[in-house]
């Protein structure tokens, strides 16, 4: 594509999160010797986000523990980090990136790892801003931690992973929690009913009031907190409100650049966008997923890391494609739950062990008998062996899956294809 | 002088298996690869996870939390997110017992 030696090329990474850090680190690991500039909007050095709703929020974590690319490492690797700077324009013809502060840099190859932004509710203008929280960034986690320190009651709007993890952390800090979810069940977007039911019971057992199928008609400020009016009538008061209603992929720049979009930036299996000089990875990118047989935009730690690594390798001549089976985890009340594949697409759950009691794994089959995914509760090893099987295009026989006395690798298996 | 600690019976592990041990209070993951034994500190250098709960394949153990790979023979990091080596301990077989040295 470019005739100049790589050592004279300039690669620019827009974004300062996990995917951006892995792109930069991988480029150097793969031997890219040219100029490398990472431009991040947050003031922090690139970090991993999972702890923001858990240890870090609770106060037992540290910035150091979650930092992925610190000052010393960036210096050693020769990665120029422009932190706290927002990219406002990219000229694809001149191949120049410009920031709000007026700095610019010409690129030979560009990476977009712009992530996403926590969704907010309209009509919150009259609610005191210090009572309303979202959780995406380190700064937001610190702000919420400060709020929880003096709070008696937290209202969580949205029963997804972020909302539930914050609920669990708040309970550990002795704060009363109410979770309000509009859908009929928790984590309905990604999880099957059996998992939603287990999560519901887990949170209630830990003292959380869980209201599913409950819409919100309005939020107002009170003398010392917030009040939520429920769509079906009723009113809840709390000291603080956390909005855990998902993220919007940060595609503003890509849209202005004219790149192909579809709920995220469209990329191929190597992370290449519709402009071959430009790659995208992480929460913002929608990739063709071989396991799903569809394009997916994943908002997970594993995706941010591994898709970024593939994109950086592709930009340095690599041929590897991103073909991971979707995988993520959540920690709540000391329980580690791991999800593999697309368990929400399953319609039949087959339990190995007793996941609802804290140790086991649900295998999720769709209507044709294909294993769509699995959800493991404190059963990481079983899930890992299952992943190996699924990667090989196989799945355990559902009847055998329940035999927890036999290791997963010794269970009879069959090709993971439909039975009808 | 190297101090050897009794760890396990030599027939306690098959190839590609791992067991978690506590040797003088130190968590140790003991592996068998092609008939030989190797010991690593039983804590991933990335997160707080036991490597003895991990998945063994192709000479590496995969951390059960974040799927990073560690070389069983050396403790060297082999894949993201692991970037720091895991401490490895000397192992020897004396008769039908496996012994591990913690100081070196």
Rounded radius of gyration of chain A (Å): 23 Å
Strand order of the largest sheet of chain B: 2-3-4-8
Helix count of chain A equals 11
Helical stretch tally of chain B: 0
| Cα-based radius of gyration of chain B, to the nearest Å | 13 Å
Q: Mind telling me the CATH superfamily name of the largest domain in chain A?
A: FAD/NAD(P)-binding domain
Number of domains of chain A: 3
Q: Helix proportion of residues of chain B, in percent?
A: under 10%
CATH hierarchy, class of chain B? Mainly Beta
End-to-end CA span of chain B: 8 Å
| Helix and strand composition category of chain A | alpha/beta
Reported for the largest beta sheet of chain A, the result is: 5 strands, parallel
Distance between the termini of chain A: 47 Å
CATH C-level class of the largest domain in chain A: Alpha Beta
Main sheet: strand order of chain A? 3-2-1-7-19
Secondary structure: helix percent of chain A: 10-25%
User: CATH superfamily of chain B, please?
Assistant: Rieske [2Fe-2S] iron-sulphur domain
Oligomer state equals heterodimer
InterPro entries (chain A): FAD-oxidoreductase/Apoptosis, FAD/NAD-bd_sf, FAD/NAD-binding_dom, FAD/NAD-linked_Rdtase_dimer_sf, Reductase_C
Organism (chain A): Azospirillum endophyticum
Cofactor (chain A): FAD
Keywords (chain A): FAD, Flavoprotein, Oxidoreductase
Give your account of this protein's structure.
The complex is a heterodimer of chains A (420) and B (104). With 420 residues, chain A is an alpha/beta fold. In chain A, the strands form eight sheets. A five-stranded parallel β-sheet of chain A has the order 3-2-1-7-19, with helices on one face. A five-stranded parallel β-sheet of chain A has the order 9-16-10-11-12. The longest helix of chain A has 15 residues. The radius of gyration of chain A is 23 Å and the shape is globular. Helix content of chain B is 0%, strand content 44%. Chain B has a four-stranded antiparallel β-sheet with strand order 2-3-4-8, with no helix packed on it. In chain B, strands 1-10-9 form a three-stranded antiparallel β-sheet, with no helix packed on it. In chain B, a hairpin with a 6-residue loop joins strand 6 and strand 7. The model of chain B has no long low-confidence stretch (mean pLDDT 92). Chains A and B meet through helix 9 and helix 10 of A and loops of B.
């Amino acid at each position: 594509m470019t005739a100049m030696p790589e050592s004279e090329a300039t690669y620019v990474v827009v974004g300062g999160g996990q995917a951006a850090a892995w792109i930069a680190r991988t480029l150097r690991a793969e031997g890219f010797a040219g100029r490398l500039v990472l431009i991040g909007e947050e003031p922090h050095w690139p970090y991993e986000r999972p702890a923001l709703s858990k240890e870090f929020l609770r106060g037992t974590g540290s910035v150091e523990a979650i930092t992925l690319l610190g000052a010393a490492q960036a210096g050693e690797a020769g990665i120029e980090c422009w932190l706290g700077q927002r990219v406002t324009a990219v000229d694809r013809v001149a191949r120049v990136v410009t920031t709000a502060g007026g700095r610019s840099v010409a690129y030979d190859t560009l990476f977009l790892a712009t992530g996403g932004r926590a969704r907010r509710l309209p009509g919150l203008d009259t609610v005191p801003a210090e009572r309303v929280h979202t959780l995406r960034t380190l700064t937001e986690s610190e702000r919420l931690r400060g709020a929880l320190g003096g709070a008696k009651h937290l209202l969580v709007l949205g029963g997804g992973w972020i909302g539930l993890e914050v609920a669990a952390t708040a309970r550990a800090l002795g704060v009363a929690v109410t979770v309000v979810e509009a859908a009929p069940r928790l984590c309905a977007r990604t999880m099957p009913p059996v998992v939603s039911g287990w999560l519901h019971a887990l949170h209630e057992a830990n003292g959380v009031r869980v209201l599913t199928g409950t819409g919100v008609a309005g939020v107002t400020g009170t003398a010392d907190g917030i009040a939520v009016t429920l769509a079906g009538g009723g009113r809840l008061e709390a000291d603080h409100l956390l909005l855990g209603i998902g993220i919007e992929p940060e595609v503003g720049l890509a849209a202005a650049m004219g790149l192909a979009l579809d709920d995220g930036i469209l990329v191929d299996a190597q992370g290449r966008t519709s402009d071959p000089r430009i790659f995208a990875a992480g929460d913002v990118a929608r990739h063709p997923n071989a396991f799903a047989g569809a394009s997916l935009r994943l908002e997970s730690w594993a995706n941010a890391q591994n898709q970024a690594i593939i994109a950086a390798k592709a930009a340095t001549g690599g041929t590897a494609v991103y073909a991971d089976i979707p995988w993520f985890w959540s920690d709540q009340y000391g329980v580690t739950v791991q999800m593999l594949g697309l368990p929400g697409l399953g319609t039949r759950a087959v339990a190995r062990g007793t996941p609802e009691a804290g140790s086991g794994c649900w295998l999720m089959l769709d209507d044709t008998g294909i294993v769509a995914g699995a959800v493991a509760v404190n059963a990481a090893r079983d899930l890992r062996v299952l992943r190996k099987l699924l990667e090989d295009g196989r799945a355990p026989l559902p009847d055998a899956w329940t035999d927890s006395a036999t290791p997963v690798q010794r269970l009879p298996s069959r090709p993971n294809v439909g039975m009808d | 002088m190297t101090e050897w600690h009794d760890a396990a019976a030599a027939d306690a592990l098959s190839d590609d298996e791992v067991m978690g041990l506590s040797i003088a209070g130190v968590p140790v993951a003991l592996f068998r690869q092609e008939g030989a034994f190797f010991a690593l500190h039983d804590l991933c250098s990335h997160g707080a996870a036991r490597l003895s709960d991990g998945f063994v394949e192709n000479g590496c153990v995969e951390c059960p939390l974040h799927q990073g790979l560690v070389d069983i023979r050396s403790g060297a990091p082999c894949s993201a997110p692991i970037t720091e080596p895991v401490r490895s301990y000397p192992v020897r077989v004396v008769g039908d017992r496996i012994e591990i040295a913690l100081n070196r």
